[in-house]
Amino acid sequence: MDRILTIAAQFAQKGRVATAQEFGQGNVNDTYLVTLDSGEAPFVLQRINTHVFRQPELVMRNMRTFTEHVRQRQRTDVLCAERRWDVPQVLLTQSQQDHWLESDGTVWRAISFIDAAQSFDTIQSLDHAREVGYGLGMFHHLISDLPSEQLADTLEGFHITPRYLQQYESVLEQNSMGSSPEVNYCRAFICDRTSLAHTLETAKAKGLLPLRLMHGDPKINNIMIDAVTGQAVSLIDLDTVKPGLVHYDIGDCLRSSCNPLGEETDQWESVCFDLDLSQAVLQGYLSVARSFLTPTDYDYLFDAIRLIAFELGLRFFTDYLMGDRYFKTQYPDHNLARALVQFKLTESIEAQERSLKAIIQDLRR
Ligand code: GN1
Ligand code: MG
To answer: What is its EC number (predicted)?
Structure first.
């Protein structure tokens, strides 16, 4: 921890670093909450996983472009005048850099802490679901007038499902994996859905879905909720804010918030997608997003929800087969367990296709 304290001190403009504690549930970066002994606001320190984000300087540049844009927009935005909305700020080092390169080659950055707010790994109530949706809508609203060319692609291939499928297939060719009921289930599950993988990319290629800016990772625990009002007040984890489809975000938000057991549950056989929650999330989202969604956007909402759950299962399973190189794990079969959860969720979404489509149909009127 001494090393972390020393790195944290690079970002402490005022006051001395008092403590640094591991923080959050991130699967990719390492995150610490840093407190200062001067009563200054705490901040978040992160080691950027450069195995995943190979150009961390681009990640930081995007983050600064994004936060500056939103800061300007908030000044005149009517929705922001009505209620609290916070944007995490990039903190600079003593020498005014947006990241710190440690002598061992690790890359670090610091971000302001969203005060008096919390996030949850699982959904708490229908009101919470509505707020989660509102938060994503607000995020898309605030970013909707930033031209997508202004942000770099910080993670090539991210959410391009056919690429994940290709990667899976090449891992299968090289890998003589043992068979177990769980592994066989995953393999058969993917095999039955290879055509599904292309749904959003085909629509994008045909020009049916426009390239916009997206958050990339708006899962339930990246949406901060005000500790007093219960309202969504911020989206954190801005590494993957980059050009993409808003559908990836909508799918990710729903797959993570409408699974009441959460993505880390060990009861994968009981995982299901909750329709009432999905209605609440979509209501919250559309209360802001209705103004910029096109009729075709609505046509692809069901596909997006189904696809992103499937895609995450595919990513976890491929990583399991590759020996856990991408997602951090806490035990040997962790990525397999995570994949099973997402596949069960996909199955549940598929089983409720008609009802979920009816909810979407009803909300688009
Ligand atoms: C990763 O690091 P974290 O937990 O914010 C992943 C997301 C997944 C998520 C699943 C850059 O996000 O795509 O949906 O795990 N981020 C990246 O929990 O791959
Ligand atoms: Mg993330």
So the answer is: 2.7.1.162
